[in-house]
């Protein structure tokens, strides 16, 4: 019934109110940032993070009032024909695609997910706009058949309307210079992670096309609050630092988290990893690629859980990673014990795995020790 009412009610509002946010990773951060930036100028409404779309979309639409001027809708693709479901409610005039990559999707492979997202983009008319990540080759392919205008964000000043440079980790924040033509401002983005610049840049691009000044975009981006369990910085045992990144785990977010770990000053850099789930036929390949990255980036210690993450342990050992520096097939309680015994002053440990593995419980048990 609510779905039917929402479909009828939304017809009285113009399409240019609506912004659809889709992609494989970064949607939650992007929606949070978009809400902050747009709210600086407009009365804005947004879907609730991580709520099932069949409730989220109609619930959000039914909250619309004439005073609301912008509506941000999460349009994540996890099932076949999900694009058709979204389009049965509303056809936004603006879309943001954060980034496309292998992610934890049980029912669609990457190619099928891109086809679904293309359905959303390709229904735009000549007034429509799609905001794409130029640094992501898969996202750029969506521009090929797009009937509307394409605006790029990224790190390439020649091809991007909005771009970032001088990207750094400073005081456990992500800092970068945000550029628009000859304008430039430094942003101290409070969400830790080199890969988190992309949701911030997508948001800045949305702000620009809505005539929000760059200085106001900067302040709005700096005002958002980090999401719990998303590269959250906590005190650990014996004056160590814990990076709690247990909100999700996909190959792209894991690689980005490791890159961020490398930018943080530390006596030792330690990884606690659970398996990446629902990767289909690419599961083994993607886990082995993470092992190769661990070798290349010279991570000091690895504590690995159970299941498919043992592929990482196998690859590490086959590549000559010292056996005393990696332990696998550990339960959560064993990981807690290892960390309490191992962590010392100046160590930084990144803890990441699929949410169902409940590695957030590991974080609670060791972070509590660190805060005593």
Output the keywords.
372 residues, alpha/beta, UDP-N-acetylmuramoyl-L-alanine:D-glutamate ligase, Protein-Tyrosine Phosphatase, Chain A, 2 domains, nine-stranded mixed beta sheet, six-stranded mixed beta sheet, 13 helices, globular
Would you write up a description of this structure?
The protein has helices at 2-9, 27-39, 53-61, 82-87, 110-122, 137-141, 197-209, 214-223, 251-262, 283-296, 310-318, 332-342, 359-370, and strands spanning 18-22, 44-46, 70-74, 94-97, 129-133, 149-154, 162-170, 173-180, 183-189, 232-235, 241-244, 269-273, 301-304, 326-327, 348-352. The strands form two sheets. Strands 2-3-1-4-5-6-7-8-9 form a nine-stranded mixed beta sheet, sandwiched between helices. Helix 7 (197-209) crosses helix 8 (214-223). Helices cover 36% and strands 20% of the residues. It has two domains: 2-223, Mur-like, catalytic domain (UDP-N-acetylmuramoyl-L-alanine:D-glutamate ligase, 3-Layer(aba) Sandwich), CATH 3.40.1190.10; 232-370, Protein-Tyrosine Phosphatase, Chain A (Alpha-Beta Complex), CATH 3.90.190. The chain starts with a helix and ends with a helix. It is globular, with a radius of gyration of 21 Å. The protein is built from 13 helices and 15 strands. By secondary structure, the protein is an alpha/beta fold.
